[in-house]
Amino acid sequence: MISLSVIIPTYNPDAERFNKTLNGLKEQTLSFNHWELIVVDNNSSSGFSSQVDIAWQPNSNIVHEPKQGLTFARLKGFAEARGAIIVIVDDDNILAADYLEQVLHIFNKESKLGAVGGKSIPLFETAPPEWLSTFYSNLALRDLGDEVIMEGWSNKYPQSAPIGAGMALRKTALKTYMDKALVGKVKTTDRTALSLSSGGDNDMVIEVLKAGWLVAYHPALTLQHVIPAKRMETGYMAQLVNNTNRSWVQVLDSHGINPWNKIARWTVPLRKIKAWFTYKAWKNKVNFIRWQGACGTFEGLADSL
Hints:
Elements: E1 4-10, H1 15-26, E2 35-41, H2 48-51, E3 60-64, H3 70-80, E4 85-88, E5 93-95, H4 99-109, E6 113-124, E7 149-151, E8 168-170, H5 175-182, H6 200-210, E9 214-227, H7 234-254, H8 268-278, H9 285-303
Parallel strand pairs: 1-2, 1-4, 2-3, 6-9
Antiparallel strand pairs: 4-8, 5-9, 6-8, 7-9
Helix pairs in contact: 7-9, 8-9
């Protein structure tokens, strides 16, 4: 019986990193009979399917989602999933060997739990610059310690809410999010080939909370997140922080919990110039990236007007 569905949305993945992700799943302590693997190909180049070996998992399938964007790929996976529990795995995540077994244990123990995540530990392909740790959260890296944290809806976003990498969800808790998607009310499409925006994880978590479920951070869940050299470059990080800040404002606004005042579009260039000096963006890489983040926030606040 399939109890759990692992969904990997992917677009032209790096072959070496993707194989590490698959090898991590191959080594899971949970019997293959109890879970399935769904790889969602989101418009990758031709020949992708023939390059992916998932035959080792008898309950596996590669499905295609022609609409570009991580949100669409995830929704495709959700629709295909047979398990009562869904685990989202990025194509650069390596789950600890007991990850899936721990997920089932946690959900069986906590009947009101809708979504849970754990530790996302960096696996750097090259030595990281010292300043990078300032932006770990933007890279979906986190470690909140060794205590379980569980929260419900309090009209604000919980600091312990699960991140997309390795997020496990009860499929019934996803109903309102999927219903919203069916009528075209899911506004964020997350990352695409041209954008580093995010927000889909947050949107899902808020819908789960609003539906009356709890969310949790659980230290028993650990994964490694592979960080290649490109993602440690200043230009990449500046675009990432800019795009994620912009989409973060948009998600909060869509749920009526945006704490900042909206701004007129014409004021954005002036605010960016002022922020350049406020953040002293010329001084170092951290300041420059933070300035880019402020620019993304201004754009998000203007978009929401």
